[in-house]
Design a protein that fits this description.
Layout (H helix, E strand, L loop, with lengths): L37 E3 L5 E3 L10 E7 L6 H8 L5 H4 L2 E3 L4 E2 L6 E2 L16 H15 L2 E11 L1 H12 L6 E5 L17 E7 L9 E4 L2 E4 L1 H11 L7 E2 L14 E6 L9 E6 L12 H10 L5
Length: about 300
């Protein structure tokens, strides 16, 4: 399904058959090995995108994680990250989830709520950290600038990755995802920066939180609050100036708010609330640059 146009409320209530994807310094002396796009990932192959003219410098790596029933190509078409690889100078992989049995929907084994509906034992954290290792063996990935970006099930997976591999992920962006409902399930060994983007009219993954089948997930505000607390932030999030993020909504549709007191050095915990926004908003052309700006401003220190 494509991102929403004029009617942004058409998605069904979430469940096993619901549609949860949108319809867009010097390197090491032994680097680089690869100077053009290469395929990594073994039996779940994905193309490692390498900026044009790459000459061995240490660059960020971005993992783009698709939604339930989707794929990496759809996520990239929706977010537009590959179109920024050359100008913004970063490596990109948009890997595939696992298909459900008998040719079923692709999914990530993220949290209890979303979206391992068939009880798979696949270890997607191991797969994704393996991709980081493979990429790092071919090009000079800056270990302080490895990031995850996801939509819906991919947003849930971004949080799972930041929980289980906190030492590998500097920051994440989640559109319409959520962290674990049970905070005890997040074993993050260190804080990380998060940007949660969520529409108030999302009927698939509710802004205020909800359930998918028997399993609950926290709302957008609670998700960011938990990661802010993990970073030692205090007080309430501070509102920023509203801006126009969605093409089909009038005016300044998105309200940002960030925790800025007491946070661990270099950590950001931010929520962009899209007023009347749906599960798959049709974004302005600068969407990719906005989320990359957040990520690149939050390396591991």
């Amino acid at each position: 399904m494509e991102p929403d146009g004029g009617d942004e409320s058409a998605l069904a209530v979430a469940g096993p058959s619901a549609d949860l994807h949108p319809p867009e310094d010097a390197g090491r002396e032994d680097m680089p090995i690869a100077t053009g796009d290469v395929v990594i990932g073994g039996d779940r192959p994905v193309t490692l995108r390498i900026p044009e003219g790459y000459a061995g410098e240490s660059l960020p790596l971005v993992l783009g994680l698709h939604g339930y029933t989707g794929n990496g190509e759809q996520l990239d078409a929706y977010f537009g990250l590959s179109r920024r690889v050359d100008d913004r100078r970063f490596f990109l992989v948009s890997p595939p989830g696992t298909e459900e049995p008998a040719g079923g929907n692709p999914f990530w084994n993220a949290t209890d709520a979303c979206c391992n509906f068939r009880g798979s034992r696949v270890d997607d954290v191991a797969y994704l950290t393996g991709l980081i290792d493979e990429a790092s063996a071919l090009v000079s990935v800056d270990p302080a600038r490895v990031y995850a970006v996801g939509h819906s099930n991919g947003g849930f997976m971004s949080y799972r990755l930041a929980c289980d591999a906190a030492d590998r992920i500097a920051a994440l962006v989640s559109l319409a995802g959520a962290t674990h409902d049970d905070e005890a399930d997040c074993a993050a060994s260190e804080p990380g920066s998060v940007l949660q983007i969520h529409g108030t009219d999302d009927v698939v993954i509710r802004y205020a939180g909800g359930t998918i089948g028997p399993s609950a997930y926290p709302g957008a505000e609670e998700t960011v609050r938990r990661w802010a607390l993990r970073a030692g932030c205090t007080g309430d999030p501070v509102p920023g100036e509203s801006f126009d993020l969605v093409r089909t909504l009038p005016g300044a549709d998105t309200d940002p708010a960030s925790y800025d007191e007491g946070c661990a050095e270099g950590i950001g915990a931010t929520l962009w609330t899209i007023q009347s926004g749906s599960h798959g908003p049709l974004f302005q052309p600068d969407y990719a640059d906005r989320i990359l700006d957040f990520l690149f401003a939050h390396p591991k220190l």
